[in-house]
Specification:
Distance between the termini: 14 Å
Strand content: 5-15%
Oligomer: single chain
Largest sheet: 5 strands, parallel
Shape: globular
Order of helices and strands: HEHEHEHEHEHEEHEHHEHHH
Structural class: alpha/beta
Helix content: 25-40%
């Protein structure tokens, strides 16, 4: 049995606020562990985790792999670029072949929204969504919210959180919205009208196209990358114009009435969505997000496995 309300982490939409808080409590304990001289614990000894990445990734894949090894799991890495997928093998066949090797948990990134749900109905292993198309990226949302709580030294209920940039093509944005709302935060998105989904207001999210007023409103600014690789048409005239209207620089931040916490899930397009003097400033917690990502993913792996019951 999972120690969460669900066997899988398919998306933030499908878990409860109590699950999120339990993940945060567990991540706090693991963050202390990974800052010790000896960073490994035997929590997932004898558990085999397969990392299946059908899309390129650097930060997420390394973060999951490090989290798994910190928990003493056996780790198998799979890349679609060098696999039988290139020869026409189906997703289900690929996963079933891996499961035949006695894999207990699957961490998967896939370009098709819903691929994880499809698998969860057909295989017995625990599944963790490491990103599916433009749908969700739940562990990124969890580590973002965990980092916000640390930066604000407070719970997120009632806090004003703004998400800036390419909302239309972002799986991070959707997971963040679901997570923050379940924790009681007030959420606003800000960007060009062409990069804001038309029906987003139906989720109870405020929509703004004014950068400065939104920065004045928020406690935390989570700035998203312009995803040019997902854009099949031009959504704004040029990157220069985007930066002039929606780019965040230190001069703008310093002119605000209060200090705003700056976040970015990476990779950063320096000089486009934020300038280098913002990314590297004291207001930025971007590197804290990276560190917290390992602890949060350790917590998710640990709670979804049944290992704690065996160790108790």
């Amino acid at each position: 049995m999972s120690l969460l309300s669900t066997k899988h982490l398919l998306g933030i939409k499908y878990i409860q606020a109590e699950d999120i808080k339990r993940i945060f409590d567990t991540a706090t304990e693991f963050k202390e562990v990974i800052n010790r001289p000896i960073k490994k614990v035997p929590s997932l000894r004898d558990v085999t985790v397969a990392n299946l990445f059908f899309e390129n990734s650097t930060r997420t894949r390394i973060s999951f792999e490090l989290a798994e090894k910190r928990l003493s799991a056996d780790v198998v890495n799979f890349s679609a670029a060098s696999s039988s997928v290139k020869k026409g093998e189906t997703l289900l066949d690929t996963v079933n072949n891996i499961l035949a090797m006695k894999v207990d948990m699957v961490v998967m990134r896939h370009p098709a929204p819903g691929a994880h749900f499809y698998l969860s109905q057909r295989i017995p292993a625990n599944i963790i969504n490491a990103g599916d198309g433009t749908h969700e990226h739940p562990t990124q949302a969890l580590l973002d919210a965990f980092s916000m709580r640390e930066a604000l030294n407070d719970e997120l209920a009632g806090k004003h959180i703004a998400i800036f940039g390419d909302i239309l093509h972002s799986r991070v944005a959707m997971s963040n919205i679901f997570c923050l709302q379940k924790l009681g935060a007030k959420v606003r998105v800000c960007g060009p009208p062409t990069l804001i989904p038309k029906h987003l207001h139906k989720l109870g999210v405020e929509v703004s196209h004014d950068l400065r007023s939104t920065l004045e409103w928020c406690d935390v600014a989570n700035v998203l990358r312009i995803q040019l690789e997902r854009q099949d048409i031009k959504y704004f005239p040029s990157l220069r114009e985007y930066h002039n209207v929606y780019g965040i620089n230190k001069q703008l931040l310093d002119s605000l009435d209060s200090e705003v916490v700056i976040m970015h899930p990476g990779p950063i397009n320096r000089g486009v969505e934020i300038s280098s003097d913002v990314a590297d400033s004291d207001q930025s917690i971007i590197l804290d997000q990276v560190e917290n990502g390992v602890a949060v993913r350790m917590a998710v792996l640990y709670l979804l496995s049944s290992k704690e019951e065996k160790d108790a």
